[in-house]
Fold each of these.
Amino acid sequence: MARRSHTREVGNISSFDLSEVGAGKEGWLVNDPNLLIALDTHSLALSTRTQVLVIKFGSRHHPVKIRPDLSPIDSEFISALEWLVFDHLSVLAIGTSCGYLLLYSLQGHLIHKQIVYTGKILKFRVRETKGDLTQDMSSEEVCAVFSGSIARFDGSDIKNMLHRWFQEKESEYLVQTSNNMDPENSENSFARLPYQLWNITKYGACLDGAITGVMPPPLMELQSNQRYYRAIAIGRDAVISAYRLSENRSRSIVGAILSRVVPATFSTISSLSKMIWRSKSAPQKKPEAKPQPFAQASSLTCLKDHPRKGEKLTLSPSGTLAAITDSLGRILLLDTQALVVVRLWKGYRDANCLFLEMLVNKPSSSQPAYYEHVKSDYCLCLAIHAPRKGIVEVSGESIWCFCFLTLLLHFIYRITLQISP
């Protein structure tokens, strides 16, 4: 019987010149801390601190080079990279050390530029959100993680903006004007994307974080149409910390009164002073883009165990589970809804985790040949790569599968040699 292969080739990049991102050096794909990688179904993005190479699988064209307009005064550099896919639209999201969000097309055209917060964007996270009982459709949410805050973008807002941009491109209007467009004005090509921003530094600066879903309002809270989100973060001071995020910036009556009275009072005083002193109006300058103020975030719980520190956070596709690695070589499997650690692994220093789905219910002979698998046919598994042990361990909900790859590091090294020019 012929041996079955459960893998298929996604793309081949060995024919491209990748020396600009460090190809050709030993371990360049694994050991370079400044190299960012974003993998999509049809494309691969490799980024250094100043430029991005976009490789489209199955294409013989040279990689598309993207050089964002970075500020040399602030020593700005690329700090985050992620693909955003909405229906048939794929764009590349780039985050900078100054807190800017940049969206680029596959051809390297700048679609949108917007400041989110004055800080380094550590990571982008994309999560599918299911609709409630009144909504059958599901959408996505995009989160930008900072060292002390987290921002949330609604996927529908980004999707609508992308549809408008591609419609303009199809009408050949944007293509004609993009060549002469000032990069400083490119961020105002469309309306500013709305988002929410929260401060999550109560237990110290965080190394990574994520919004895991919607949660009920706190007790004794008046019911309203506002949503509450659950967020988790990891850091040096607190291994795990959890927060309840509110869409409102202020829920108290005093805060609502002050937010209305104080601006009106200052506006009245300013207008009276202008009438009295008849000050000449200064020439108006283009206002600088500023991040919006924080919304309300309340802490739920935290885990402090000095000297243990959180290192990496891996979120499941649904957001209900999270795998957290710490500085003591442990892996904690966290139930993000109950905020309970349901499993603990020890002896996995410098480990990397990845959630994947394994097919467990195969179609029977009585089912048609064109049978399409449903979600219940798959089992959620957690793959753990322990580089010091040289193994990959895959554990699932109902099965335990241990794949000991003693030559894993050598295998990665051989892949690196094949990719190098």
Amino acid sequence: MAEHLASIFGTEKDRVNCPFYFKIGACRHGDRCSRLHTKPSISPTLLLSNMYQRPDSITPGVDPQGQPLDPRKIQDHFEDFYEDLFEELSKYGEIESLNICDNLADHMVGNVYVQFREEEHAANALQNLSGRFYAGRPIIVDFSPVTDFREATCRQYEENVCNRGGYCNFMHLKKIGRELRRQLFGRSRRRRSRSRSHSPHRHRGYDERGGRGSGRRGDYADHDNRHHHDTDRDRDRGGRRPRSRSPGAKRNRSPVREGSAERRAKIEQWNREREQADSRPKGSDDDNAASPNGDQHYDN
């Protein structure tokens, strides 16, 4: 029984819960609906009811004074509102989608649906927007059960063949220009990329790959780790510590190794000098040049 109720929840077969409220977050019957409108206690999606006010809200294409409106001005007015709202909502978290209804029915006109990447971001926005005003009107905000806008939107409207017009019970979502969408959501993605690169986990991975971190400390740590690793490896191979490769160590390098002929010539010279020293008579001043501890002292 429980599995059956779970399988029909939010569908037309569900005689307890309203399927339109579950799909769209709004119902034309409102509080008079015979089925339950169960509001979620937490959701990544917020509904800002009737927030967008069309300049031709009384009569489509005509302003309140009865003058015809240029469609381009209507679109500019909408995009100004969209950008302003996006900038405000993005303060509370990363936005996955921002949808605004173009419907005319009372329960859907001007509805704004913002879906955040995380539920905590939506809860933060709800807390900060409650009790505030926009254009002199109070902001009515609440969690929405809508998470899949493909099920909530009118497919016929997307194909420009919906015969119900603005009074359709499914969402008619108003579109913004491609350039504005690329500007807003591209900026959001870049902000997310920067926040990931500044996270501690990202720093560790970046430093371990030998790249430059946000500070010099990561460079030094990475350089020291490579230095000790190479030193241990060289010790295992040859049993000796490798010579320093720092610029200052170049001045203290040992002489270039001599050839065999040069070494033989030097050995012969040392032997001659030793024979000459041995042939000197005992008691000379050189024999008395002994170190205090009894070891022979050699001049450099």
